[in-house]
Amino acid sequence: MRKVFEVTQTVKGLGYHEKIAQLADWLRKAKRAMALTGAGISTESGIPDFRSPGTGLWEKVDPMAVLSVQALRRDPRRFYREGFSLFISTLESAQPNPAHQVLAWLEEKGFLAGVITQNVDGLHQKAGSRLVFEVHGHMRSGHCLQCRHHYDMQTIVDFLQKGEVPPLCTCGGVIRPDVTLFGDPMPPDFWRATQEAEKCDLLLVMGSSLVVAPANTIPELVERVAIINLGGTGYDYRADLIINEKASKALLDLKAELEKDLRRE
Question: Which of 59, 194, 204, 234 is most buried, most CB within 10 Å of its CB?
């Protein structure tokens, strides 16, 4: 488990650029570092987050009413028309933003071992990240609740566009997306991610409010935690470094700081 200690004097009271320099130094010295990302990293790609006042998805729908396992089984038509449609309408055209691209660069250069993400949008893979643990599933495919036959997401979308709501398997069962719905058990990637986190001495959290369990327990497994987020998080009181800024700006500045050393090599 994570060692509990006060934020060191070296990071208290630092300005923005000093914090970026400190984080760059930690990445250079880390034996193994991972990133943990949430919905806030994808807002600059046009994907709304869940809780922001006025724009969050949960202000438009009650997630338990339309995006839970119980809702899917009780009223699959409503699940697809009111819940699923919120995701697919924004994911189809979304592209990686600079934050995703810098994380892929950090992995390529050996500063990060990989990414743990709460997102289901697949933008880390599109940006080039190779080791990605999707702790809430993904939107690339789905499967039949009855026979477990798998379908790619485009096939599911084609069913819906033809008016087949909900989409049905050839066996007659309802097809569901491979995302972790409210009421689902956590997927294997979550348990793999916790094992990876336990090997790390640095975790870089960004775009997550760290209030959704059990993903918000992952920082507790790592000795040193740095957070990049516009607002406060549920872990600020124990974080070793907090940068309140958009992920893309902070990560581009972090890349520029790390490139100073790479140019000297």
Answer: 204
CB atoms within 10 A of CB 206: 25
* Residues facing residue 36 across a β-bridge: 116, 205
Q: Residue 150 has which token pair?
A: 């798998």
pLDDT digits (tens, 9 = 90+) for 167-216: 999 999 999 999 999 899 999 999 999 999 999 999 999 999 998 899 99
All domains of the chain in start order, with CATH = 1-46+96-136+186-265 (3.40.50.1220), 48-93+141-179 (3.30.1600.10)
What strands, in cross-sheet order, belong to the sheet with 225-228? Answer: 132-134, 114-117, 33-37, 202-206, 225-228, 241-243
**Under 8 Å between Cβ of 26 and 259:** no
Tokens (6 digits) for 156: 């599911």
How does pLDDT run across 55-111, given as a tens digit for each residue? 545 455 666 667 889 999 999 999 998 888 777 767 778 899 999 999 999 999 999
Give the DSSP H or E segment for 36.
strand 33-37
Q: How far apart are CA 114 and CA 104, in angstroms?
A: 8
Which bin fits 115, alpha (ψ -120 to 50), beta or left (φ > 0)?
beta
Q: Would you name the residues annotated as active-site residues?
A: 136
